[in-house]
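The protein record minuted underneath.
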Amino acid sequence: MMSPMMSPMMSPLSLSLSLLALLAWGGAQALPPPGELRALSAAGSRWVDAELQRALQGMRRMQALLQRSDRGHRELQRSLQQAQRGKEEAVQLALQKEQELSARGERCNASAQELWERCKPCLRQRCMRLYSRTCRSGAGLVGRQLEQFLNQSSPVSVWLDEERLERLRERDERQERRRQELEERFGLLEDGVQDLFQDSSRLQAHLHPLVQPPFGAGRFPRRFRRFSGAFQPLFQAPHGGFQQLFQPLFQLLEDSQRSWESPWAELGTESRNFSNDKMVCREIRRNSAGCLRMRDECEQCREILALDCGQEDPSQQELREQLEDAVRVAERFARRYDSLLREFQEEMFNTSGLLDQLSRRFGWVARLANRSLGSDGVLQVTAVLSKAADPADPAAPDTEVTVQLFDSEPLALTVPGHIPWDDPKFMEVVAEQALQRFKENAVE
């Protein structure tokens, strides 16, 4: 039996493993002559170097995606600020018109108050009938709340539609919470991706010290440092990653949209069948002003809406129209705000999915930032062994190769026997197996 062909640079551990491999392989024989191990190592190192460069290019693609997302994020902030200003200005105008209308409405003739006294019992009856039919409990409390609300209100309440302004204020609070949550998640995305960039830049500097790394100069300020490292390296978490940051927001934004859209908005008639009884019950308990939405079902309330106080105050009808216009404008800006949040969230969901794909494919290079790559190449072949041919088996025996990749422990690999060691494909198979083994070990 011939001794296995071994590298003169082998460490004691590598030598021991190679000797054990030889003992285990009865009839083993050395394949390449001495001196060819260095050539095989160089060929394997070139293959791994090419993979490193492809992975670093993948990091550049991730950087480009992040930069594009950052531009979209800045544009979102500008658009949200514009929508917020428009909404606030419209709400302020509506409140102003509401105050003016309320003051002038008190001077309307006495018929408005008379109609209001006849309107209130109808509103109370219609609203409580709806609640009793739809909701399981709480009718007594709701009835007392509604009674108190109606007694404290005036005929102007029928004109003002105060419930819409209240819902606008609540919607504004919810939108601000959604905006802050989206900001935080975008910050987590930035920090996680840039952690990979930072490590990749150190590797690039090690491989090519005279070439300026393409990563470091473009790093964004870290905004959410307390979450540093939570998603790095992401290539080891195929079921998690960046995209999970934005997945829950789909449901959150949908819930936010449904929660602000009043169940009264499509009430129509008392006999309407509600698809979400819980929401209707919660809305009536929360805000008695919603019962004013049923004013169209009461003749006396409709008469108040049709009441013309123009003879005593020609500007009153104009004020009512201005109030309605201001509320509509505020609602339009609120819808625009929601739309902007959703569009950016959907864009980030798609972008984060691409980042996850790139990270799983190329993120392994970030693990090399603190590893020793060696001065004689990243891959060293330390032994090549093959069993003697079996006359009863025409198939060529497999070849066992022991290599060291980066600063890892020696790896025992197997190459199909039909690929000779002097075939370029031989070291491609060895290097590919070694790199795959390194990736698997890196995620354990």
